[in-house]
Structure formats: structure tokens, C-alpha cells
């Protein structure tokens, strides 16, 4: 009777775990642990349960524990059949950790039921885009899968992979269509976010590539908020990195620092290292722009250490670009060109998923300065071809910037700056204005050059890129910018929003719920507001908010 009772309990607990694993990985783990505590389990059943624990452990932030368990299971496996079952769970763990190279290998070694295997193979195939494989061939493979299946899980993974291939080829409208199809088929109740199965994150990413920063930010924040509520910390790493990148190029550097610091903290806590290169690169770029050279070098060194692990190519473009920027700053133009040329060739197969629209103008500038005109012309032609695939203003502006440099066309550079002014790419807009000013000055149009240089200096100052702002002040004899005028002006729009809610008496969890952002993000914004306002705690934020409102009332006519 005891054996029958145990068997019945196992069935109930296993069904309960299956019902909640996608939405609450920590709850599923506890249910699996209860099953494993029962004595009446044969070895095969116990192995299946231990393998089932691996993926939710990784999503809940225990990647190192999951990795150790998988390796122990491999060591104790009795035969090849058992090893193949372990490969599938370990592949999901490795993808969640950011090691797409090893994950793809283990997916191919896995032996599961036909439908599960098809979905896993689609995930592995899609991941190959981020490893530098040919996106056109990957698209052919995934399209074949779509034509031969009606399983929604397989379709979800295939459409996500096709979104990546289309994005890599700069076909962003097609990428958006596939990302939405993947998202429509994604059922969070039955489909765990194994590894890179994150269709809503890719929907937002494609929005950002299409200049829709506000839409992307809202979706990234909502996905991160829901992930934190579920205890799915690995997804929070993806959304924090994405938010940091958007804020970096939008010129909201304080927000970018908060998000990218969160990536590093989460990586230490969970072992989810998918975005270490991106986080260190972004933080290095901001530190360089602020004149904090020691911090920049520290982040660059850490970023290069992470890049050498060879997990995937995501973020490598940003790291080498910032490294080249440091070389430019020290007068090492040859070194800058070497790094830019390396990244351009290294990331060629996934061009559209990189920050190429920001990088290409620097590559052209460095190539021309070092006598590599043919390479500059080839880069210009490629960017123009990319811009021709999709009507995105920032892409068209990047092509114009590159062409203007190649042709010494001051008016073309001005047109590029004007076009970028209609986009959310504020860092690129400031840099484009500086480039146009230099070409105008070289052609003798000094007054127009000073006007554009002044616009660039003001925007750089607002962003916090003080080195560039001061460079323009010195070069063109401009009035030095004194932004911000008050401590409150130093707050980013999101920090200001959070500070107002703090002053209204809301707790961090209440603010997170009100704004649909993670509690970690709220904590970061509160800490930043306290620092910028010269406060020592939340109560003083409220006091300063009252004083601010009182001052505004007094100034009214």
C-alpha cells in the first residue's frame, strides 16, 4: 500500500510541477524536490525528474547549481540513452547562462520525443545566428520546419529564429513580423523561457532597431517586471541589458548605468553571463565620455576577458567600438582602425543585430585617416545597402553620414544630422552634428560650423558626454555648457518619476507595480535620486520635492 501511495503522490506532484514550471520555476523546483524525497522511484524516473529540475533552476537564478547537477548526472549516467536525455536539460542551462556555443552542441546531442526535439533544434538553429553562422541558410532551414509542423511550440521557436535571421540581414519589417508571430504562439503557461526563448524581448529589440525606443522601453520594462514577479531572474538579465543599450544610445546615461550595473549584479548572483560583454562595454563607453578613464579601462579589460570565453558574438561589436574610441582619444588612429576593422569582419553575418549604424561612421573615418580608402568605400556601400532594405530614418542617416565622410560632403553631413534629429538616437545625433561641423569648417563655412558645433556641445552636455562637449568648446571657442541648472534637472525622466512617487509615500514594490518596472530598477533609481539631490534617505527626497513645488509656486506670475 505504501508503494501505491507513493506512486499516487508522485503523479500528483509531477502534474502540479508541470502546471507551474513555466510561470513559477521556484515552485516547480520545490515540487520536484518533494518527489525526489520519496523512496519508491526507479532509476529512470529519478533521472527524468532530476533532468526536469535543471532548466527551472537556471531560470530561477541558480545556474551554477544547475550546471553542477548536470555534470554530476553525466558522470553517473549508465548508458548513452540516459546521457542524451541529460543533454537537453544541460543545453537549456547553458543557453540561459549565455554560453550559446556549448548550448547548441548539447541540443544537437539531445534525444527527446519528436515534438520536443523539433522545438529544441529550432532554438539551437536560431542561436547559430548569434554565433556568426550564415543567416540566409538558417532562414531556409527554419522555413522548412515551419512548412512541416503545426505544433505551436515548434512554430514559436522557428518564428523567433526567423526574426533573428531577418534582423541580421537588416530586414527589420520582416523581423518584426516573425517576432510577433513567435510572440503570438508563446504560451507562458506551458512554454518555459528556456535559454533564448524570449519572443517578447525580441519584439522589443526589433522595435528599437526600427527607431521605436519608447515602445521598446515599455515592453522591456513590462517583461522584466513580470519576470521578477515569477522569480525568473535570467530573463531580467536580458531586459536589463536591453534597457541599458536603449538608454545608452538615447543619451540617458544615468539610466543606462543603472541598468547595466544591474546586469553585472545579476550575473554575479545567478551565473547568467549572456550580457557581460555588453554591460562592460556600455559602462566603459559612458566612463570614457565622462572622462573617467580608469573606470573605462577597468570595464574594457573585464569586457575583453568575457569576450575571450567565446560564448557568442552579442556585445562584441560594442566592446571593440568603445576600445577603438579609447584609441582615438589617445591619438592611436592605427589601433582604432585595427579594432574597428576586426569587429566589422567578425560581426558581418549578423550585421543588422549589431550597433553598426553608430559604428560605421567611425570605421569610415579611421579607414580614411589610415589610407584604407577602399575599405572605407566598401563599408559605405554595405551601409547604404542595409539602409535600402528597410525605411528606418536612423539607417538612412547612417548611410548619409558615411557617404558624406567619404566624399568630403559637408551638406550631406548636415542632412544626415537633420535626419537623425527626427530619431531617438540622441548620441548619434550629437556625433553627427560634430562631424558636419568639422566638414563645414574645412570648407570655410565657419559660422555654420560653429552653430552645429554649439548644438552638438549642448546635446553632449545633456547626455553627460563631457569630454566631447569640452572638445567642441575648445575647438570652436564656444560658451561652456553649465547643464544641469538645478539638482532636479540632473535627474533622468524615469528618476524624476520615481522620486515623485517616493515623495507621494509609495514603497519600492508599489512604485514597481505602478510603473511596471522591476523592484531592482526602482531601487537603483531611488539610490541615484538620493545621490543627485544630496539627500540621505527617502524622507529627504520627499522634503526636497515639497520645497521644489513651493519654489515653482513662488515663481509663477
Sum this structure up briefly.
The chain has 557 residues and is mostly helical.
Task: Explain what you see.
- The protein has helices at 2-20, 25-36, 43-59, 63-76, 80-97, 100-109, 114-127, 135-147, 152-168, 172-185, 199-209, 213-230, 233-249, 253-270, 276-290, 293-307, 316-329, 333-346, 356-369, 373-387, 393-407, 410-420, 426-442, 446-463, 466-476, 493-503, 508-515, 519-533, 538-555.
- The longest helix is centred in the first third of the chain and has 19 residues, at 2-20.
- With 557 residues, the protein is an all-alpha fold.
The CATH topology of the domain at 355-476 is given as Serine Threonine Protein Phosphatase 5, Tetratricopeptide repeat
Quaternary structure of the protein:
single chain
Query: Can you tell me the CATH class of the domain at 355-476?
Result: Mainly Alpha
Low-pLDDT regions: 553-557
Broad structural category: mainly alpha
Number of helices: 29
Question: Care to count the β-strands?
Answer: 0
| C-alpha-based Rg, rounded | 25 Å
* CATH architecture call of the domain at 355-476: Alpha Horseshoe
Helix-strand pattern: HHHHHHHHHHHHHHHHHHHHHHHHHHHHH
In angstroms, what separates the terminal alpha carbons? 86 Å
- Shape verdict: globular
- DSSP helix fraction: over 70%
Strand content: under 5%
Largest beta-sheet characterization? none
Averaged pLDDT, please?
A: 89
Topology:
Layout: H1 2-20, H2 25-36, H3 43-59, H4 63-76, H5 80-97, H6 100-109, H7 114-127, H8 135-147, H9 152-168, H10 172-185, H11 199-209, H12 213-230, H13 233-249, H14 253-270, H15 276-290, H16 293-307, H17 316-329, H18 333-346, H19 356-369, H20 373-387, H21 393-407, H22 410-420, H23 426-442, H24 446-463, H25 466-476, H26 493-503, H27 508-515, H28 519-533, H29 538-555
